[in-house]
Structure formats: structure tokens, C-alpha cells
Amino acid sequence: MAKAIPPLNDLLAVIYLICFAAIAGGAFALMTQNLRGAAALAPVPVRGSRPKRHPEAPEPGEEVLYIDLSRERLEELYQQAS
Fold first, then answer.
1. Rounded to two decimals, what is the model's pTM?
2. Cα gap 78→27, rounded to integer Å
């Protein structure tokens, strides 16, 4: 008995592999374009340039008010409050 119709399993497997390859290639292309775009947006450091100072940063030599939160200092404050 001869086969009149070729089996569809082979045809479906070929269609599946073609679609899989197209999706995988598209995903790879999208990933590489995203990486290239991110690399293009990254700032390029210029030699000799200094980073910008924060507007509220203290000037060199200026006194700064701070709170000492070391363990010993906190224990001392706790003993004074009791």
C-alpha cells in the first residue's frame, strides 16, 4: 500500500523550526541593538575634567555639623538620660 499524502508531522516540524529560528534571530537582533544603544548613551569621561560638585557640598575647610552615632556615644547618651 503506497502513501498518497505525505505525513504532516514533518511539515509541521519544519514550520516550527523556521518560526523558532525567526523568533530567536529577532530576539538576538533586538538584544544587540539595545546594548549598542545603551553604550551610545553612556557618558564618555573626558581627561582632565573634574566631576561636578553638588550645590550643597561644603567648601574645603568649611566646618560641618554632624551627629556622632557611634555605639559608645549612644551608650553615653543613654546613661545620661537615665
1. 0.45
2. 60
pLDDT in tens, 50-65: 778 888 888 888 888 8
Residue 61 lies in a domain: no
**Residue 22: which domain range?**
8-41
Spatial distance between the Cα atoms of 28 and 66, rounded to a whole number of angstroms: 52
Residue-by-residue DSSP string for 7-66: -HHHHHHHHHHHHHHHHHHHHHHHHHHHHHHHHHHSPPPPTTPPPPPPTTSPPTT-----
Asked if residue 28 belongs to a domain, the reply is yes
Tell me, yes or no, whether 25 lies in a domain.
yes
Q: In the Cβ-directed half-sphere of 21, how many Cα atoms lie within 13 Å?
A: 6
> Tell me, what's the pLDDT at 3?
61
Q: How many domains does the chain have?
A: 1
